[in-house]
Design a protein that fits this description.
heterodimer, A: alpha+beta, MutS, DNA mismatch repair protein, domain I, disordered C terminus, B: alpha+beta, Trna Endonuclease, Chain: A, domain 1, 5-stranded mixed sheet, 9 helices, tRNA-splicing endonuclease subunit Sen54 N-terminal domain-containing protein (chain A), tRNA processing (chain A)
């Protein structure tokens, strides 16, 4: 480090010129393995707005869109200040460029002028006549070609210069407007009071009646800028439901059916027998065993949590659906929705805030489908590390997202016994056409998890994303990986348990 | 630049929306950056380029520590922006403010007209340049076709065509051979439709806020003394920004973050606070790994009183820098 610094001092010309300083280069190479990351990963420096302006058309500062398709680059930075005129002037140039970039005034050409009226009671914004691509994934349509926007949607539209929001002149009348009235009619004109500035929009929307916080908006805008479709999820307002304890227990331990009871009586050891075996041994009873798996099963003496897999039915977590009320009335209803009898509600930071979809030409806001990601927005300053209960309830909101098929172990298509015996050498590692085989496949599956959620941690405007997933360690039976991979129908824990049980049962009977 | 720091009137309003501190004026943001080493975080979308996350625009979000420091120094004061706007805009949109409202709408219309004229001028100059480029490529061809045209046809009257553009249009016409009829005149009227304008700040139409004596200091986290110490340390030019990206409380820069890499990852502790040795090792390792120093600091008890009231709250702070030495 000292060497690099001295180099810079000796050769200040080099350090401020366009060529990257040696320190910068090493820092990038230590920080970021891949080249593509270095852009985004070099995040301790503010980007240099000189580069940004060079990508814009500079003959006007009033009304030009970003023209080149390439993203502007961050600039090269110096290690430390030293009293050279060159450094001073390049700093001044950067600051001037930033000032110029920030001085842009948002204007709306008449053809694409989209106007909305803010409602300070509900925090919604009513757009009279939607125009442009933006509304394909924004807002809830109302009759007559208009749409209602949530706070974050309206603020985002205004911020990117695509929406002109008005403070209502006659608030009750503005609320009564529907799309038909709103189409540039006099009625609409009467209701628009004053166009809101960016500052007014922040004052109205952030912390306003719409339930939008600064953290939620920063995450929303960041994702929208990155090109994702972002919709409010059910937990946007931070209200979580909790099943009351009594009925939860009812649900978790359903009374066994007659068949289960019969099976337990004849074949399987019941809980009592198992406890006895674990306490006084022997761990593996003498008997006739057909394979090692049943023995390994008996050697499993440490109880472990098994994440609910996609095939288990006893886990009745409601799949989260997007909140897509089509009208204000419906939204109100949803907010005051009656809680089912055996649930109670409470406030928590750990709920799903947004559902995120990759941009797709076929996306329809009326039928968004299953989200690609789900994100929970938390404030770094007000929230502490989630407790197990908070994390559990957050994950309970998430749908099953098992590892994709290419991560699953590849089973030989013909699973005849003679085949599999011969294919033993192939099976272990070499046969792995997919990534699911071998020990690497295990790691990939554990990393992917059964259910996952993104945490977006926001510290005064800076966002950091984390992915939390439920790793299914108990699903990975390493003993079954040795030798030919077993033919398995699905990842069903129940199915496998049944098979193992039968094996054990025989063993027990033989003794 | 247009915004000279000498024009800035102190104290500067900081706008509180949803519990966060924002600056909406470019002049104020530049001023605080240049004069008080307060960089803040730009969180808004740049309307010129709304589909990227590298360059962001106004508003400038200030950390609570930054707001507290500025208010303590008397440079800024905090305005409850939601209440101010609710009152101000309700009044303007009510019967009392009708006159002011119409006045402001007229001003906006003027601004929109100016913007429309500027836009038209730009598109015109761009078109001329494009045609000029085309001409250099096909100068001879254009001249020939011009001559042929002048012979063959009597020109239709296109009054808005300037004389100097006459030589350009044939080339233009040839490039787009679809209609044989005369090209449509570019109508650059004197009074285009005004563009809608969304101003960045709300003053005007709202009256400028004035400092309120009853306002309290913005609350800041317990690590505030370290922040104030790093900011106010005599002889230093440190800038601080939120340290979330590197898992610390503040990233400390030796100069403007526009031009410099950060030097320290700073974490503030209470003097007697117990913390894991592991957090030292973790911070030290991370800091050393990214060529920064891991810096911890806190207020030494008893020392703060000696200097009480003379600083920004940094009295009695001592710092330690930790470097991971390998294993």
């Amino acid at each position: 480090m000292a060497d690099a610094t001295e180099d810079l001092i000796r050769a200040p010309l080099n350090s401020t010129s366009a060529s990257p300083s040696p320190l910068h280069a090493t820092q990038n190479s230590t920080n970021n393995a891949s080249d593509s990351d270095s852009e985004a990963g070099d995040s301790d420096t503010a980007p240099d707005y000189v580069n940004f302006l060079s990508t814009l058309n500079l003959e006007t500062s009033t009304n030009l869109q970003h023209t080149s398709s390439a993203l502007p680059k961050r600039g090269n930075k110096d290690f430390e200040p030293h009293p050279t005129n060159l450094q001073t002037s390049s700093l001044q140039r950067s600051r001037d460029a930033m000032t110029q970039a920030l001085s842009h005034t948002r204007t709306h050409a008449p053809k694409v002028h989209v106007r909305g009226i803010y409602d300070d009671k509900s925090g919604l914004t009513r757009v009279g006549k939607v125009k442009g691509q933006m509304f394909r994934s924004l807002g809830r349509d109302i009759s007559g070609g208009g749409a209602d926007l949530y706070a974050e949607e309206a603020l985002w539209g205004l911020e990117r210069g695509a929406l002109d929001v008005f403070w209502p002149k006659d608030a009750p009348k503005a609320q009564a407007l529907d799309g038909a009235d709103a189409t540039d009619s006099d009625a609409y004109e009467e209701c628009t009071g004053l166009p809101m500035s960016l500052q007014a929009a922040y004052a109205a929307y952030v912390g306003g009646p719409g339930g939008l916080t600064s953290e939620k908006y920063v995450v929303y805008a960041g994702l929208k800028r990155a090109g994702f479709v972002v919709l409010r999820a059910q937990g946007f307002h931070g209200i979580q439901r909790r099943r009351l304890l009594q009925s939860a227990e009812d649900q978790r331990f359903p009374s066994p059916g007659l068949w289960a009871w019969l099976r337990e009586l004849i074949f399987e050891e019941n809980q009592h027998q198992k406890t006895k075996r674990l306490a006084i041994g022997p761990l593996v009873k003498p008997g006739l065993y057909r394979n090692y798996n049943s023995i390994y099963d008996m050697l499993r003496i440490i109880p472990a949590y098994t994440p609910p897999s996609s095939t288990s039915t006893s886990h009745a977590s409601p799949a989260p659906s997007s909140t897509r009320p089509t009208s204000t009335a419906q939204k109100q209803k949803l907010n005051n929705e009656e809680v089912p009898k055996d649930y109670e509600t409470y406030h928590t930071s750990y709920t799903t805030t947004y559902n995120i979809y990759r941009a797709s030409p076929t996306f329809r806001k009326s039928a968004p489908g299953a989200p690609d990601f789900r994100v929970c927005v938390i404030s770094a300053r007000d929230t502490s590390v989630p407790t197990l209960a908070e994390l559990d309830s957050l994950l309970d909101e998430q749908p099953q997202d098992p590892p994709p098929p290419q991560l699953q172990p590849q089973t030989p298509s013909a699973s005849r016994p003679d085949n599999s015996a011969r294919g033993g050498g192939r099976g272990g590692r070499g046969a792995g056409r997919g990534r699911g085989n071998g020990i690497g496949g295990v790691y990939n599956r554990l990393k992917h998890g059964q259910r996952n959620v993104l945490l977006a941690v926001v510290d005064e405007g800076v966002v950091s994303y984390m992915r939390v997933c439920e790793a299914g360690f108990t699903e990975e039976r390493l003993n079954e990986r040795v030798g030919p991979p077993p033919a398995r129908g699905g990842k069903g824990g129940g199915q496998r348990g049944g098979r193992g049980g039968r094996g054990r049962g025989r063993g027990g009977r033989g003794s | 630049m247009a915004h000279s720091s000498r024009d800035t009137v102190l104290p500067i309003p900081i706008f509180l929306s949803g519990g966060k501190h924002f600056i909406f004026s470019v002049a104020h943001a530049s001023f605080l950056r240049a004069e008080y080493r307060i960089a803040g975080v730009l969180t808004g979308t740049l309307p010129q380029s709304p589909q990227q996350n590298v360059f962001l625009g106004l508003p400038l979000q200030l950390m609570a520590e930054e707001a507290r420091l500025l208010v303590r120094r008397g440079v800024c004061f905090v305005v409850d922006d939601a209440a101010a706007h609710r009152e101000g805009l309700r009044r303007l949109c009510g019967p009392d403010g009708e006159e002011e409202r119409l006045q402001w709408l007229a001003t906006l219309r003027e601004m929109g007209l100016d913007a429309a004229r500027a836009r038209d001028a730009v598109s015109k100059s761009r078109m001329e340049r494009a045609l000029g480029k085309m001409e250099t490529g096909r100068r001879e061809q254009a001249l020939r076709s011009l001559a042929a045209r002048q012979q063959a046809e009597t020109r239709q009257a296109t009054p808005s065509e300037a004389d100097s553009e006459d030589t350009l249009f044939p080339a233009y016409e040839q490039a787009t051979p679809s209609p044989p009829s005369a090209p449509k005149p570019m109508s650059v009227s004197d009074d285009p439709n005004p563009l809608g304008v969304t101003p960045t700040t709300s003053h005007p139409p709202l009256p400028l806020p004035f400092p309120d004596d009853t306002a309290t200091l913005p609350p800041a986290p317990p690590s505030y003394p370290l922040f104030a110490y790093l900011h106010s340390h005599p002889g230093s030019n440190y800038f601080s920004s939120p340290g979330l990206r590197f898992g610390c409380q503040y990233l400390v820069y030796p100069g403007d973050p526009l031009r410099f890499h950060s030097h320290f990852l700073a974490v503030g502790y209470d003097w007697d606070e117990e913390f894991d040795l592991l957090s030292l090792i973790g911070g030290g390792r991370l800091g050393t790994g990214v060529k920064k120093g891991f810096l911890i600091g806190g207020t030494e008890p008893g020392k703060a009183e000696e200097f009480a009231g003379h600083g920004d709250g940094e009295e009695g702070v001592r710092c330690f820098c930790i470097e991971w030495g390998g294993m």
